[in-house]
Amino acid sequence: MKELFFGLSNAVFTYALAFYLITCFQWFSYRVERVIFHFTKPVWHVFFIILPLVLYYTTGHWFWIYFYFAYAPALFLWHKKLDKKLVFTGRIKRFFIILSLALLAQYTLSYALFKNFVNCDATLVAIISLALSDMLERLNFKNFKRAADKKLAELSNLKVILITASYGKTSIKNFLYELLKDEFNCHKTPRSVNTLAGLMKDVNENLTQQTQIYIAEAGARLKGDIKEITDFLNPHIVIVGEIGAQHIEYFKSIENIRATKLEALHSKHLEQAFVHSSTLKSADDKTQIYNAGLKDVSADFDGIKFSLDGEIYTSPLLGKFNAANLAACIKVAKFLGLSDENIKKSLQRLQNVEHRLQKMQAGGKLIIDDSFNGNFVGMSASYELIGTYKGRKVLITPGIVESTQAENENLGKIINEIFDVVMISSPLNAQALLKTIVKPEIIIIKDKTKMQEILAKHTRAGDVILFSNDAPSFM
Fold first, then answer.
1. Which of 78, 172, 226, 437 is the most buried (most CB within 10 A)?
2. Residues 258-283, buried b or exposed e (16+ Cβ, 10 A)?
3. Could you report the per-residue pLDDT of 113-128, keeping only the tens digit for each?
4. ∠ CA(86), CA(89), CA(90), 5° rounding?
5. Among 47, 25, 51, which Cα is nearest to 38's?
6. Whole-angstrom Cα distance, residue 240 to residue 249?
7. Mur ligase central domain spans which residues (predicted)?
8. Given 3.40.50.2300, 3.90.190.20, 3.40.30.10, 3.30.420.10, which CATH number is that of 358-468?
């Protein structure tokens, strides 16, 4: 009975350890170097990997007291408080099947050699399972890519539009789709799908012989990521949006970010590229600077108005920064043969992308959800918009995630002049923000699960409440 208890406990610990590890890997796109070197809360690794493994190998049977009364409850509470929990995708299910088979194999071997189930190693099983899972997914990746390549080759009349930028990709994609959908059979990548694996899945599952235009966004964390996607899709039209300091910790410099985004221009099917002036690219026969003729931009709570190449355009979209996004869409639409009249009609039905300056009312308060807007240009423009509101102004933000301290300090200066109450929702940039925020009332949110109670206590009817950017609890 004692042997059975220790054997089962070993299996439970293995599953617990693997659960923590695979959750971290899912957050960071299954990149080992990101989980090890770019993990923003390394203390979690200490509590859930390093300390338990040290005790596992040094305390013998006493370890199980620590496991059941400390580690397991702590892991349960940790998971409960996460705002981005493990999603049981096909990959995750396959991992746990491999883990179970590895445990079974180790127990079988232990019994065959030692006639007991105690001589099993949780770390060894977890590492072997992660390695086997990675090998299986790489094999699946090759099969998916082969199928996607074949499908794209068969769609000879398909025109591919690729969108990449430091920020604004999803907005440009959605606005462009709205402009083109009445004239063409269009498909856009769902949600924020922007990786090579996600694009291959989308091609395999959603493109048909009837699809005329495929609008895809491309994201990057490393040099070469955009090149991989470009080599796969070989887009006919490329939009390279604004370049900024997003993900600077991975790229190390703006120059590296710019070079990576411009990898999209190396498509062998390229007909025309529309690039933002921040790319520092010069115009030529195949390249237009889409914001070059953008002037007289104004924005309020009724929408935006701007001039592009001498023509006046209006839209109910909120946010001055959306003028540049629309400039790219208008240029592409005109390149594809749409008339100014049809473009202007389509602009009037546009709505802000979900979680990007979405307007709603609740309890007499005006709530602006801008939680997916995470760059300096977009966030500062949304603050300028909020500045036109006559009532009390409340901000909830973690600052700019995966950017520089200087950008967060500059953001703090703008916040300081506009808002009456500032709620900082993550410790990630709190120090940089607090350097420059001195006028508003400051509230530090330590537990986002209590957000509703905090808002009820610190806001009132007549307030405008802006949710600006969001940082998952692992950031």
1. 172
2. bebbbbbbebeebebbbbbebbebee
3. 766 656 678 899 999 9
4. 145
5. 25
6. 21
7. 163-332
8. 3.90.190.20
Q: Which two tokens stand for residue 310?
A: 């001498």
- The Cα–Cα gap between 151 and 155 comes to 6
What strand order describes the sheet that includes 272-275? 186-188, 213-217, 159-164, 237-240, 272-275, 287-289
H or E, element range at 308: strand 303-308
Round to whole Å and give the CA distance between 125 and 129: 6
pLDDT digits (tens, 9 = 90+) for 127-185: 999 999 999 999 999 999 999 999 999 998 999 999 999 888 999 999 999 999 999 99
- What residue has token string 């050699």? 113
Same fold, 156-348 and 358-468: no
How many angstroms separate the CA atoms of 442 and 26, rounded?
33
Q: Does an H or E element contain 214, and which?
A: strand 213-217
Place of tokens 């009037």: 348
Domain with residues 156-348, CATH architecture? 3-Layer(aba) Sandwich (3.40)
Q: What is the arrangement of strands in the sheet containing 311-315, beginning at the earlier edge strand?
A: 294-300, 303-308, 311-315
| Rounded-to-integer distance, Cα 289 and Cα 232, Å | 25
Query: Which DSSP state fits 194?
Result: -
The one-letter amino acid code at 71 reads: Y
pLDDT tens-digit map of 26-82? 988 888 888 888 788 899 999 999 999 999 999 988 999 999 999 999 999 999 988
Two structure tokens written together for 371: 């939680």
Q: How far apart are CA 455 and CA 369, in angstroms?
A: 14
Could you tell me which residues are beta bridge partners of residue 394? 421, 465
Q: Which one-letter DSSP state was computed for residue 73?
A: H
The pTM for the full model equals: 0.79
Contact (CB, 8 A) for 351 and 316? yes
Residues listed for the chain: 475
CB-based contacts of 77: which residues, under 8 Å, 6+ apart? Answer: none
Tokens of 360: 């709603």
- In one letter, which amino acid is 131? A
Coil, helix or strand at residue 55: helix
Report residue 367 as tokens.
């709530």
